[in-house]
Amino acid sequence: KEGDLRYRQIRNLAEKLGERGVDIVTGGGPGLMKAASEGHKLGRSDNKTRTIGLSINLPHEQKTNKYVDFEKKFKRFSARLENFMLLSDAIVVAPGGVGTLLEFFYSWQLVQTRKVKTIPIILLGQQWRGMLNWLREFPLRNKMIDKGDINLIQLVKNVEEAMKVIDKTSKKHRKK
Q1: Reduced to 3 states, what is the DSSP secondary structure of residue 153?
Q2: What is the pTM of this model?
Q3: CA 88 from chain center: how many Å?
Q4: Quick one: average pLDDT of 163-169?
Q5: Could you count the other beta carbons within 10 Å of the beta carbon of residue 118?
Q6: CB neighbours of 60 closer than 8 A, spacing ≥ 6?
Q7: N or C, which terminus of the chain has less Cβ within 10 Å?
Q8: Is residue 175 pLDDT above 80, yes or no?
């Protein structure tokens, strides 16, 4: 909800991305997706940068938030996720539910199997520490995944740390 610490954090991150002229892609819905789209509009100084909403048809329809510049609707999660990955130079995973976890693991798998270019997958906030510990404790220890797979994920505490990773990635992509 607006005013919540996580809402403000995501709005601040997206505002910084808008200031840098970086497009953002979300699901286009309410909550943290709205915070990202709102922050992006606050930060940008041109009309070239966009906030893109990739929405999904759900039984309990959610409305696209008013800050989205461009919306594309999907019937299937798989097609939506493919589009997320085609448009992304970095993934920032904020707190969320089953959909967020699906997007995180799918993104991780595509990067891990080199089906897409290597991009940073950033877990924003300490709530992800337990999941990373579990990944090291069970799948890694039992050789179901490699240490290199874990190294594809970056845990950051705050917006400033996330922006350092994104800025470094943006410079790398601009050189090409």
Answers
A1: strand
A2: 0.92
A3: 8
A4: 92
A5: 11
A6: none
A7: C
A8: no
Strands 91-93 and 121-124: parallel
CA dist 135 → 64, 125, 140, 145 (Å): 34, 17, 6, 9
Residue 172: per-residue pLDDT: 57
For 111, the token pair is 């990067």
pLDDT > 60? residue 109 = yes
Answer positive or negative: Cα dihedral of 47, 63, 116, 129: positive
Per-residue pLDDT tens for 132-146? 999 999 999 999 999
Helix (H) or strand (E) holding 18: helix 5-19
Structure tokens at 2: 């607006």
Q: Which two tokens stand for residue 156?
A: 């950051």
Token pair 């950051």 is at which residue? Answer: 156
Sign for the CA dihedral angle at 94, 99, 102, 103 comes to negative
Residue 15, both tokens: 């505002």
Please give the C-alpha separations between residue 86 and each of 81, 89, 98, 110, 118, in angstroms, as whole numbers.
9, 9, 21, 11, 12
